[in-house]
Design a protein that fits this description.
Helices cover about 40% and strands about 20% of the residues. With about 350 residues, the protein is an alpha+beta fold. The longest helix has about 45 residues.
Length: about 350
């Protein structure tokens, strides 16, 4: 399990109860005292006969076994505690998403390439605001603890900026400044390398209009029935952290998200996953097969896609993978507002 103590400063070890501290020191001392007492005080231990040697060997074997079992139990207890702490920290970073946000069905899933880790450098969040539903999907360079720290800096800034900023471009500038601060702090510690993050900002307004700003991230897939198409084909901006942002950051408009349509956001780990023969994972075809079952259920679709990806990579993906699905099921208008009469075109 990943330890995320570097994200929150110096680690704080949980206090042990006095009884547990006594047991931790007393049991090994008792076993050692037993062995020494037998060797020094027992007449049988002073004899050189075969029987005496066998008894001495049995005594010391029992003492050694007891010590090994005690150490093993202590290590397992510490490991379980570390996993609980890491699980809480990981849940705070990638918080479980609610099933509905602003009239949209929401589901997310992710895999970490780091063995035993629940999260990696991929990041996502969905927030309902007065400006509409705002979404971030990103991928920090690399994976492991360094990527987790970068993802935490970007996510923390996004969760504040989406409520404060009216314009999606201003949200992106806040993320860029947060990443720059994070890199400067790591530079002072001597742990900074080349840090950058691909980021996709997506906003679905109360009228259903979809707007995006894309910095080096794969475009989402638009799902209409069983048809899968990229939301856009334009070249994105460079990833955050490589170059300064341009002076003008107009959001790209994509029309409206209509009832029955869905968007699948993903990181490049889903497209670049390879099997043993070097073949890329067929994300689009797998997604097409997954959405044939109607009515559309985002959680079921993501489960099918991840299952197919793990099968493709023999349960060993080489990069972190994150999937996020937004589905407008048409049961009610976004943010309880009518989609009609706002003059926006539907998504192609």
């Amino acid at each position: 399990m990943i330890c995320i103590r570097t994200l929150t400063g110096p680690s704080v070890r949980p206090r042990r109860s006095p009884l547990r501290r006594v047991l931790a020191l007393g049991l090994p001392t008792a076993w050692g005292a037993t062995a020494i007492t037998y060797k020094l005080a027992c007449p049988l231990a002073q004899q050189d006969g075969l029987g005496a040697r066998l008894v001495s060997s049995a005594v010391f074997f029992a003492v050694g076994t007891g010590l090994v079992l005690h150490v093993r139990r202590t290590l397992l207890r510490e490991l379980r505690q570390a996993r609980r702490i890491a699980g809480v920290a990981q849940s705070a970073l990638l918080r479980p998403l609610p099933p509905r946000v602003g009239g949209l069905n929401v589901a997310a899933a992710q895999l970490s390439a780091e063995r035993g880790a629940a999260i990696g450098g991929d990041l996502y969040e969905v927030v309902g605001t007065e400006h509409g539903v705002r979404v971030v999907m990103g991928d920090a360079r690399g994976h492991g603890l360094a990527a987790v720290g970068t993802a935490a800096a970007v996510l923390g800034s996004f969760r504040e900026a989406v409520h404060d900023e009216d314009d999606l471009g201003d949200v992106l500038r806040r993320l860029d400044r947060a990443l720059a601060r994070h890199v400067r702090e790591r530079s002072r510690d001597g742990t900074a390398g080349e840090e950058f993050v691909t980021v996709l900002l997506l906003e679905i307004g109360p009228d259903g209009e979809v707007r995006t700003l894309n910095c080096g991230h794969p475009w989402p897939c638009l799902i209409t029935g069983t048809e899968i198409e990229p939301l856009a084909r334009t070249a994105p901006l460079p990833p955050l952290g490589l170059f300064p942002l341009p002076d003008e950051l107009p959001a790209e408009r994509h029309g409206r998200l209509l009832p029955g349509q869905a968007l699948l956001l993903h990181t490049d780990g889903a497209e670049d996953a390879r099997d043993g023969r070097g073949r890329f994972f067929p994300l689009r075809q797998t997604l097409t097969d997954a959405v044939r079952e109607q009515p559309l259920c985002p959680r079921a679709v993501l489960h099918r896609v991840l299952t197919a990806l793990l099968r493709h990579t023999h349960n060993s993906p080489s990069d972190d993978v994150a999937l996020l699905m937004l589905h407008h099921d048409g049961t009610r208008a976004l943010d309880d507002m009518s989609l009609a009469g706002h003059g926006a075109d539907s998504l192609p």
